[in-house]
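Re: that chain you flagged

S.,

Sorry for the slow reply, it's been a week of failed gels. I finally had a moment to sit down with the sequence you sent. For the record, here it is as I used it:
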Amino acid sequence: MTTEQTSNPTRTGTKERLLSLDTLRGFDMAMLVGGGGIIIALANLTGWNWMEALATQQHHVEWEGFRFYDLIFPLFMFISGVAIPYAITSKVEKGVAKSILLKKIFIRLLALIGFGLLYNGILSRGFTNFRYVSVLSQIGFGYFFAALIYLYSRSIKGTIYWLVGIMGGVAILQLFVPVAGYGAGTFEPGTSINAWLDQLLIPGRLHGKVFDPEGVLCIVSAVTITMMGTLAGYIIRSGKSAPAKKALYIALAGVGAIVVAQILSPFYPIIKAMWTVSYVLKAGGVSALLLALFYFVIDVKGSKNWTLFFRVFGMNSITIYMGSRIIDFHDISRFFMGWTSVHFNELWGKLFIVIGVLVLQWALMLFLYRRKIFLRV
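Prediction finished late last night. Pasting the structure tokens below so you have them in one place:
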């Protein structure tokens, strides 16, 4: 899901690409496909308290709360939002018709829905008891509506109005609209407005049986975190402030979003599976802080030598995400590293195997990167 940007944060006659954005996207994907597994294996091997605390962060919370693993998906959506001003504004400035851009973002939506169906196994399982919604389709809808809003407003104020309006609408539904037999403001898996809408509108199997974390209201709410990324991208692309100040503004906005989320959380809980507004604010705030950090270190200060490991993942994110589903990297790693369990012990063996998984994935992405093969959606 790479986009047209440049390593130079200023606009040039060439394509615009933010090196920090590719790196942050790659960091996100690396943690998803193998980095978290390495931390868990290290914690099991060492038994160190601080490692076990880090390992806990590599799992979703059961329902209410927030851990690092709850950030991976929304961070990706936030990053896709950052790319929107680069993908759209430069083309509008060159005179490309909005109808053409609309067609492109709609095709992107259809492609991501299609990849989501493939990821969920439609070719291997067929339509019987099939789950139609997916992470990829939610990313697609988030990008489509955020890009649509930006395309036709193309201003900070217009995007903010839409952002606040959508968040407010979701909050009203989740807090005040009653569900038959349960009342309003319920935040349990089977009794919330999310669950009621999912059961009413989504065919096939729901991931949570009575609700889906990528369901109807979740998709609507997730659009807002993509829009938060769009605002950050607008700030970075704008020539109104020095780059260091841009990083500061994004970081301050991130802190503000986190503070608001924590204030809301006692009566409007932070729940990823429902994409509550408090969760979106918390995830968006942390995403903004990470973007500000990566942008400041890489694009402002010019520290780039360490970024290659993450960039090869970040520039082929859809490939590694789909590849990790189709290719059994664990089985390949066990083929090469299984002997370590015999010559050391089982815990060491597991560590070597999960490291092998990440190395194999990175080697494949590096092969594609060196040959400039990128699956773009």
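What I noticed first: Confidence is low (pLDDT under 50) at residues 1-15.

Talk soon,
D.
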